[in-house]
Amino acid sequence: MRYLRSGPRRLHTQETGVPRAKTVGLRSGEIADRNIRVILEAIRRHGPLTRTELGRHSGLTGPGITNILRRLAEEKLVTSNRRNGLGGGATATEFALRPEGAFSVGVKLRQRRGEIVLIDLSGQVHDRVYFDVDPADRVGVVHAVARDMVDRHAALPIIGLGIAAKDWTEDESDAIAAMSTVARPYVENECTASLLAERTVGSAMPKGCLAMIIIDDDVQAGFLVRGVPYSGVHGRAGSIGEMLTGPDNVQLNTVVGFHSLRSRIGDEDFARLLDGEEFSCPLLSQWIREAAGHLLDPIIAMAGFLAPSVVMIGGDLPQGVIEALIHQLSIERRDTSTRPLLTPWISPMKPASFSGGGVALGAALLPFLNTLLLPPASA
Q1: CB under 8 Å to 374, separation ≥6 — which residues?
Q2: pLDDT (tens digit, 9 = 90+) per residue, 129-181?
Q3: How far, in Å, CA of 317 to CA of 275, rounded?
Q4: By CB neighbour count within 10 A (0-12 exposed, 13-18 middle, 19+ buried), where does 144 fall?
Q5: What's the CA gap between 343 and 142, in Å, rounded?
Q6: Is residue 144 helix, strand or coil?
Q7: What dihedral angle (degrees, nearest 10) is formed by the CA atoms of 157, 378, 210, 112?
Q8: pLDDT grade, residue 373 (50/70/90)?
Q9: Degrees to nearest 5, angle at CA 38 with 42 and 211
């Protein structure tokens, strides 16, 4: 897999012991690398922009901006055009992102199934493949599907591989790195990857706190606090599937997880849902009512302690099912027969912006965030 980098690879927090947003004490090469990221991120978010506008967004000087733009143009990451002045005034050169200047591959990995996507620098998905997973040979499966994706698009400048998985290990990353055709991947858990997709290319606002709930074989939650992923001291923040919920005090995973849904509606209808087919049936409606009644408890806890600006819900369920679940949650929050209090202060709820919760998309963004774009803490 080929690499295109704008500077030295940004070391992870665990490698440096320094928070990601810290810039004090950086070497000159690292400062230059960060300034390049600042300019590229400004163009990606707000472009096309002139040099003057880039100066306002970045705080950098004119000569510095010119040098950075020259380098980005040489690496074919930005393009320039003439902008006509208003009322026949002077024209200026504006700079825009060149999405085809870099591509990345992202893998979403579950116990028995997976998804791999190819995206460009703007976050646009160019290829998507779903595949089965052998739990005994996850490395072999990921290597095979990533190699096939890269080979299919051999002419493109693919810069790296990202993986979103709940329990991917360092040994598995080492095994991937030992295979010559696929580089060492950048890895995050599924909810963090989903939040990065929302934060980088989705509809979520960058400020405040954002919560994401992913419904799959189990139920997970993730949090962005002021744009930074929060996973807790031991990385267990968001393990809501283990909570005891509802009037019957049962574990959330046993009511809302996919095993419960499959048991309720049957294997055939469950497969139809995962294929994206939307349909209604009494058993599915019953599951939605029971799932909402139990899911509301962790949402109340999130609202009480974190007060996120929005709680997003995603996963492999069709959009219509997720919307029906959110509608049922809005009914449950007003029902005082099971909870003797009204909860108008609960954060608004909405579906995730992307199919599958954007997990594979977020995984594909990881190489960009580690080599080209500003990491969340700096954006």
Answers
A1: 34, 37, 38, 41
A2: 999 999 899 999 999 999 999 999 999 999 999 999 988 999 999 999 888 67
A3: 9
A4: middle
A5: 44
A6: helix
A7: 40
A8: confident
A9: 75
Give me the pLDDT at residue 261, please: 95
Task: Specify the pLDDT at position 31.
Answer: 76
> Residue 78 has what DSSP assignment?
E
The alpha helices in the chain, defined as continuous H runs, are: 13-16, 28-46, 51-58, 62-74, 138-152, 170-178, 190-201, 252-256, 258-265, 267-274, 282-305, 319-332, 359-371
Q: Domains plus CATH for the chain?
A: 13-99 (1.10.10.10), 101-194+359-369 (3.30.420.40), 204-352 (3.30.420.40)
Are 109 and 103 contacting, i.e. CB atoms less than 8 angstroms apart?
no
Q: pLDDT per residue over 79-97, tens digit each?
A: 988 877 655 556 788 999 9
Closest residue by Cα to residue 58 from 92, 35, 77, 27: 35
**C-alpha–C-alpha distance, residues 277 and 170, integer Å:** 37
Residue 79 CA to residue 73 CA, distance in Å, equals 6
The backbone torsions φ and ψ at residue 20, rounded to the nearest 5 degrees and listed phi first, read -60, -35
